[in-house]
Protein 1
Amino acid sequence: MGRFAAFATKLTNSATQKDGIKAISADTLFRMSRDNGVKTLMSQNGSLLTAISSVLLSVPGTPIANNCCLCLQNVSFPAETRETLLNINAGKVVEGLTHVVSCPADEAHQKTRETALAVLSNMAITSTCKAGLFEFQSGRLMKALIGLINIGDKNACNVLAREKALTLCKNIANHARTKQPMFDFAGMVDALVSVLTQTLSASKTHKEVALQVFQNIANNDSTPDKMLNTTGLVSSIVRVIAQKANDSNATARTNACLVLQNISFIESCRQKLYEYPGFFEALVSVLSNPEDTVKKNALPVLLNTSMATTVRVSMFKHGAFIPSLVKLASSETGIVREKSLSVLRNVANHEDTKSPMFEHPEMIDTLMGVINTPLDDATKLARETALAVIQNISNNDVNPSKLIAKEGLMNTLYDVFRQSANAQNKVARENSLLVCQNLSFPNTTRAPLFQFDNGRFFDAILDVMYDEQNEHNKVASEKALATIANMSNKKENNLPMVQNSRFINKLVELCGTTGEPKRQSINILAKIAAGALFTAPYLLRAKGDLLSVMMAVVKDAGTDLKKWKKGNSNEFWALTFLMNLAQAEFSVPYMRVANVTKLMAPLVSQTSKESLQASATVAYLVDGDEDGEIYDLLSSNLSSIDRIIDLLENTLNCKGDGKGVDGKNLDYGYGVFPLHSPLRAMKVLAKTDGFKSYLLEKGVYAKLHRCVRDFVENTGGGYVGGGGDDVESASLAVDALLELSYPSKTGEHANDKAAALHIVEKFADQNMTSVPSLLEQYEMNYKVKTSEFFSASVLSANSLSNRINLSSATKTTEMASKMWKMATMKKQASLKEGVDRSRSANIEERRAEELQNEEARLNIEEATKLMEKQQKQFQVEQQKREADLVILKQALTREKDSNQRKIIEMQKVSAEKENAKNVFRADDLAQQIAKQKELLLLDFRANDGKEVKGTIKQAMSSLDNFFTGESPVPRYIIMGPGSGTTLTKDGLTTFMKEEEIATLHVLCSFDLSTAVSFEITEPLNWVRDCAPALKVGLAALKFAFGAKLMGGGLPFALPDGVDLEMFVEAGFGQIDSSFLPNTDESKVLKDIESSTQLLNFSNNKGIEITGAAYVKLKEFFSDPEKARKLTRSMDKVRNKHGKEEWVSVQNLNAYCEANSNEEVEIVVASPIKQTRPSASSVSMPTAVPMASGLSLPLPEPEINYSPTNPASNQNVSPPRQSFDGGARTDQGLTHTREILELKMEVMSLKAEMSGMRREFAQGMAAILTKLEAADSKPKAKRKKSFFGMGGGGGGGG
């Protein structure tokens, strides 16, 4: 140390006259400083360093000062000496060095300045010295450096010093405390920018170092933004990059990219930098040049910039950008390939670039090529990044299906993840599974992905899931679970998934673990349970008692829903599982035996999304039970039902997404549940009488109406269901509407037979298409008809439509009946008061009544048909339910397990309840049918045949003449088996077609009882001749029995298993088949056509055939023996209007009494002449055909006997005594039309209900015209009668 003191003295002793001693001392110190040990000692000797500083201050431009600087340079090489040099003696060393730097830039000071700058640069390498040097004497050193930089490169003495000054600035700027202050230091940025703009060759290194200064300054959070706002700074850097690439500017262009890389690192600077003029074009030109080595530095700038989502679309649209990246990814290796792929990854992470990226030529093929490259450390990162690009491209709704269809891609993906997990392929396997997770996200790809490669893809995913214990596979196993979770959210996949027992058992096992595997497993099972209609049996029978596992998860979460974990939690998905499972009828007894409702009970009364799930679960489990604790739980918490109704409302209207500013619908808004969930709850609740009225009052009917409308008209709908594609929701809505159409036993419409119609009128949305119209379209919808699981809802729609139509008919019928009765009462009152209405008023009144009667009649018929059809459906359904009950009873006897017995017993009870409800509805329907049939008879009797009168008015005038004149023979005849013949069921057809002997029965017109019988031979020939007349008799027989008008029974017994309708139909068949033996085929066809066209009034041929048939019949009765037998048994009477009837002797008194209110003349039949009629007698048709297939015979003149006009009785025999020997009264016996009209009216109605053509009613118009014409003539006072179907023709119809 003493030696250093001597040197210090020599350097500072002013008495020393000769500079040689100082020079020697300085040179000696320089040489000594080369020794590493001496360097440390020198740095610690303050007097020596002070002496050296004094030399620099006093003689800076001398060799002595240069040697001193060289000594300091050596001393500053060790890192441990630099801080000492900075701080010793209050910075005397830095002061001396700064003084040297500040000296004129001449040749004398050149070397000393360069060496001094070297010393300062060494010191600035140490982090602790950077800030000290920058802050030294308030920036004195920085000012000196800026001055030196500004001298420029034109001065040869300053070139190296300028470079060293820039290097010193670079080192000082590489400290957190100096970056921003240095950028803000006056003149610093301008000095550096000026270096970038100079073009002399001497400035080459200066540019490179100046850019490094900017690079260090930019490596800060606050300075990049300031740099972007500094005029000329970024543009100067961009111009450096834009220079044509060569070896001389490679370093500067590289450093310029590094500056921009630091600026682009700041998020707020990326878009501004991208928008800087020339920036992006300069970098793209680098990528496009295969020879440009700067691309590996340009790519990080683009990578950072592409992290701004706002610039990605613009980047993609640049014509050369994406092709350059794809080419680099396919042709380059190492960092260039990795960074190119990274930029592609970022650009692909934008909704508007995903699809174009997929469509870009060679994009996917290039990525597949990178992924398929043999894996090693050099290719590892590129493979991972290429998978990340595909991951981003696949993250939209359109590309997944295209990627699945891309040849080779799926194989590439699962070639990656099915490899054995290790450290090298860990990330790549995870990325490939992330791609699969994206591919499984769209609803349209879940089924194709699940089925890919005949299920081998799914098996490979399962293998990854099973290997969750492998340290390198844990994340991959979770991603595999997430992919399966997406695929499970597709009903087509639920059944094959749940049938994979290995898979389900593994999920149940994972439910007993912790963390993500447990959550995902519960999630998957909850989604599989969404298809509980067909997955419930597998889930409930899986190993490990899955129902108990899920209930335990919910139970462990506690009863306070506020303490439950929100969102994607275990308890949420376990509760969802229970709710989904409860939607299957199969699950109901299992869940009720397991006491799921007790678990739900404390949750129902709370207000949250989970409470809604609990309420829905309980609603599904109530299943029509009106006595149990489940019903009590809901009925005492009606607010829970309100929330389900709100959910239905929100889902239909696509609102309540949890983001409402009004604070409503936050917990059970749109998207929480699929639409079918609240609809299924409505269907189940609607089956329970206790909730029907409540649901109707809450507007549920209109919401269900809306759901069916949306489906049928393909409107509305959203991502959770509804609209024209959601068959399940529409079918549930139809089923619920059907249940609501049955009124509760204690509700407003309890005893209302037209309840279905009244409910529609009151609760349906009148602004939408009517419910019946929608149901008709629903039944025809091909999506419903072809649905594997919901096509049965067509029957529900049909039943509901029938119920509404039936209700409408019932309502109309009852109203019409009341109107008829009121009209009758008014007429009777008017008659008593002697009010004689004018003829015109009567006609108008009749017309109005006719319209009402016609509408009511049609409604009665339609109602009866609908009810009979629905009754058949009930019978079929009841047979099925009874069969189910038998199976359940058998299972109950076999089962020994107590829980299983409870489940079967519950199923049995449920089936019995359903059966009882079905029986009740069937009985109710039977009562309505009986009521309708009663109305068919009673109401028409009550209204005196006004309905028939209305139809008669529409008849053709061509029949006007056919009810005047004579009636040659009785009108109603039927043919039965011959005497001594026993008719059997098997022999029915034989008799009708082959019997040689038969009995002809003549029926009384009054009550259609048998009056007299005749044996006939060759019945088939006889039938062919008298076919139309036989049709009249068969139809009258059929209608008389249907309306209970038959006075006696059938003249012969029908065999067991043969009813009257069967006999009559066989008779009609016999009439038609009687024409078949004719050998002339053309004549056969013509005869059959004529016979079957008797209903056509416009066909005169039919009228002629009918008349000819009665001529044949007259010939039959012209035989003397037959004539005597006929006249002994029957009388023919006719009123003064020419109407005639053939009445049995037994019924003659009853007939007269029934017609005593009208003045008529009694006509006594004379024996039928035994002569064949002349040609002129048959030229006029003798019978009138009817629409029902019947024919009415024409009257024949008779001898009139009038008890009130003796003068008219000349040459006329007095009336015969009645059958019982009693005398007839001679009062004004009235031949009324009432009974005849009633008979004809009932017959007509029955004919209509049997499907016979309605032209019958039209065929009677002329009759009415004739009758009314007769009514207009002066006549005796009589009771006002009502025109009916019969007219004077006596029955038929």
Protein 2
Amino acid sequence: MLSTSATPTQKSFASQQSANPVHIANSRTSFERDGLQPPPAPGLSGGARNLSASAVNFAPRGSSLNPSPMPGSFSSDLRSHMNLSRAGSRPDMFSSLEKLDEDDGSIQERTLAHLREALGREMKIKEGSENMLEALNTKKAKQTKEQRQRVEAELNSSNLRIKELRQKITAAQRTKPPPTTPTRSRTETTYQGPNGVRSPPSASRSGVGSDIEEPTESPTFVLAEILRALEMDGMTPDYYVSRANNLVNLFKRHPTLKYDLVWSVFGLRMQVMLLSESREVVAAGYRMTRYAISDIASLKNIRSLNTDYLVTWSLIKDRKSDVEREQALKLVRAFLDVKDGVREISRAIVRTIGAIAEEPEERLRPICIETLAEILVRDPRLLIAGGGLAPLHEALADGSYKASESLTAAFLYLLDAPEKRKYLRPGNELETLFVVFTDDMSSDERFLKQSAKAIASALRSWSGLMNLSMYNFRAIRSIIQSMVVSDGPVRETVLDLLYSLFRIKSPAWATSFLAGRRLTTYGRVTNLKSTTTKSSQSDFDDDGGEQNFVEHFTALLLAIFIKAGVVPALLRLTQVSENLILRRKSTLLIGEVLKLSSRLLPPSWSNELQLLPELFSAAARLKDENHFSATGVIYQISSVSKTLYRSSPAAYTPSVMPSSNSLDLGLLDDHPKSNTSVNFDDATFRQLLIDSVVLSSSNYSKWNWDVVLRLIEGPLTNGKRLEEAIKASKFVKRIMSFYRPFKYKFSEIKSSRNTQKYVRAGCSLMNTLLQSPEGIKYLSDNKLLRQIAECLAQCDPTSGLTAQYPMFSKDRLTDTLCGGYFPMLGVLSGDPKGILMLDRWRIFNMMYRIVDLKQRPDLIKLMLANFDYSLQAHPRVLLSKALTAGTKDIRINATNALRKYATRPRMNAQGTEPVDSKWAIQMLVTQLYDPEVEVCATAVKILEKSCNAKNHLEYIVKCRPALDHLGEIGAPLLLRFLSTSIGYHYLDGLDYISNEMDDWFLGRNDSYVGVIEASLARSFLDHQDDHTNRISVFDVEQEMEADSHVPPHFYRELTRTQEGCKLLRDKGHFDEFAATIRDHGMQSDDPEMMIKVKGCLWAVGNVGSMELGAPFLESCDVVEHIVSIAQGHEVMSLRGTAFFVIGLISRSIHGLEILSENGWDANTNVMGHSLGFCIPSNLSRFFSLQPWKHSPVTTIELPETQKTESAKFPAVPSRPRSESLIRAIEAEHGENVAEIRKVELDPDPTNQRILELVIDLANMVLYRRARNELMQIKSQKRAVGFKQPHLFRRVMGLLECHHYRLADRSMIVGLFDKSVLRSIIFDDEESEEEDDDDEKHPATGGAVIGRSHVSGSDDDEEEDEDEDEEEDGEDEDDDSSGDEQRTERRRSVSDPPAADTKRHSVRRSFDS
């Protein structure tokens, strides 16, 4: 692909294009490349009409139909495979024909995608070279000299290619292709030059530099010209394809043109193209028809042209016709994009798509399955009546379908409501997902993982969880038992599934533990890290925190699996598994399950679970051989549990209050962790200096950086030790020399994840030097800061210092560790002495000028992200300047830099009390008035999070921010103001509360349902982080919170204050919500009322979650009704809403008491406050979904619009072959036995036999004999019915109503003469029947349309070859009739008013 404007090479190529139209044609990506062949001379047009008589070879597209993340999306390219014998006739006819232009993307966009892909490959090559160099640095230099040189050469060339690709991408993004408005005549508008493209503008006529635009042709005129061009006979296939492509482009440029189509003319052109013998012409016809779809009326017009037969005929062809089949399937999918378009899809097409979906090796199988799934969601009656449920069921069962999660979602949608649930069998569809786990023959790990993903998605939905919990959790018990019984990949996959379902994140030491290393050191190291960072990770949350719906749902899942026996199964696995890694993994999972149960589940669930009675009873049997294995498991579980507790003690027990005064349980560990690393004796200190290798070598790659970091963070923090290291050794001197920019050591190291250790060590070094007077003096006298200041001066245009390659250039900041100097400066900016040193070298002065000039946004973002703003000093002034005077991107980055100062408590240098955050809040309030909405929205989100701390909230209210100009963006922040009396009175003075309250009561309460359900859907998705080996200094990690919390609700915030509760009581809204739940809570047939009930449930739950809302709950019996909805409603999603609302209510003391009386319980902390994870004491009462009555397919009656053949066949009983069975039937039915033994399907006996044999093809017992007899009838040419349209319709009716394999459908349709389909499409059945009555001249069809039979006649029926030769001879005799019909066809199209009156005669002339 060549871009129209990116590089000089491409520009020169573009100039060549303007001089040579042939090059332009070769550069286009659609069928516009096809040569436009002029019509033949009148004297040469005597041949029969032939749209395509030659082969077309498309460039193969490999995997264009592989499943994609989006359902139903697949490549738009076309391809065709032809027989080599036919392709040899005209090998060069379609040399430039590659694919239909399906996508609207320009060449420039494709070039950009290609460049980005190449850039990604080069980045991977670069990373590999860097890792190889780092590995070679650990070996001897002499041994790896040659290899090192090769790797360095590859790395340098990769850097050059990366730089060149980035320049190309930048140029391509900035430059757009110049518009061309060619001067053309009316004829050129239609035919567009000899190659199907427009001619380039002439320099003499286009008026270079002129603003005058040339007049363009009318779209309707162009449409008429294209349709007239399609009327011409005897042209090559590329002629018709290019004209159809031009028509598609016209529809793209003028979308409203399709509403003005005259279907009597357009439909005739469409029918002729779809009946062509060229696969490419047929594909272009389908594509042209698809782009003509506008509304439901256009779909009806298309179906009135008998396209159901054409689509069915195309879909059953073989792989050589994939170009045609693909476009036919796209046409069917286009019906789904129109409102109520599924009502215009016939049952016959669904049957055919289902037959394709049943073939495992079929290329179109994935997209056919997606199409069936979409039809299942939109119209389950049509899919089930069309037999499309079986392929979907099979795709779920075998696990081979890659997009099994989207397919599962279709079944989950039907299982939610009772009116759609009845079409599925209870305990059948979803349980097929477990087949690959319970089948001994299934061991493909890829299929197991795909099925595990589908099971996880089903268990994370309410409809799936309720259905899989039927029959006493039968499905869940089966997968747990398969983990114990099966071996190999099944066990590992089930364990991974449990980790995913319980959302367990493996600790940092898990990999080493699974590899067999001991746990003696992991707990201490992790505990040391947790205690040092605990203070910075705790949040102020004075309101007790907000409800976490994800953990609430996880608590329910955990309770289900515990009841299904997951803990005994894991214990059994730890004793019987021979794989040591699996044993350790199951042991770790047991520890995680015990940890989760103690935190999420009520004591009634977790107390007995923690005892592990089965394991201890087995260990107590001293005479049993299993005693030793059980004892070992107990020891392993104890070690894992203890290590997990040390890793995160606050998360291990529920007794920690989510407030700033919470007790750090890590301090209660039985091993006190004092900072003894500082107090080394002399011998140990000197030995560490020697072990660091810094004293013996000046090559930094040979240094032991773990020991170096241990020294920097440990003994060197002591002034005496630091002075000794400075004066008595070269340790500190060499370390500081390594970091000096102009030594080109640290500053030349390539940036990668592995080299970030040097940045961390540098930051620790700055922090250590600031701890003692000796370090401060040494740092002040060292050249490090002076050289960093000189590097900054190179970026300051006013400094007078310049450099050809500045140290802080954008490329160096991206590719090397030069950006690591800014985190070091950030450490210095957090200390008063460090600020003095920075001020000494005028570093802040240069930063001020850099921010003012705005020439280096990358440098500004890097400074803002790394500076420490805790002190009232230059960094805050610099930040304030960026907040107000920077560009929009810089203002957004500066606003995000305030997040950690406004939302989290910052400890001062002594670590005693939090630093004041008022300055950050003031700056954020100022950002609310920024002219850019994105900046305001960022500030609102940070302030909303900051409101979790009550003192922050009160201060924000005191600032009295005006949010009226922000509209909906500022609404969440205003809602948080209601949670305090000060904020309530402030908003009441603005008359905000009464207006907002009425707004929520009248409509916003219902719209909140969609908001929170979308938030829950996002939070339940699996977010897999893409971990790369490269770190960019420009990727600033923002602490973006997940959407697992409750979106702000007006009534929740209103109930936080006494004034709000009084207003709510006076308005009477809560009583209205309770009455709606009581009167309409159990309804399941009215969707609008169900949304109303959901809105009332969320309102009641948010009011009940507050302690001040307890009187509202006690004033009525609304909690009992909510429990009834959760335990007995027919709609599963409404049950889930009630479950989450119960969790909200349980957060208040009075709400939990009421729920306890109704059989629900929740875990509490040591103060008795509920955590909100409320689950039923008896799970069977909550999972009470009973098997429903299944509606079989025989009870489904489709409307006539969804049938291709509406004529009903008489009931055909089975025809017995044994005399005893015949006598039994005679004894039962008496005189009616003749009618039972044979039902008349057709007056003609041969046709009767053909129909009986077609029926027998659906019987596997009679299949072979029926097929052979049908082929025999066809080969003997004694069946006139194969040329009769009425028999074809009857056979199509059988294919529509019954199940046949794809090959059988192809064979059955291939038996019929080619003229039959044309007769049906053009409604010439009566004339055809008259011709069939005269057996002397059977209708064989002319050569106007040519061959359009299916692949079965080529591949499966060798007997047809003789008949084809005979028909070809008859076609030659029909040349004269072809001349007449072409003349008549021209008249019908050139004179549209007369087209309707002559249309019937024209159609009959095709086969006369």
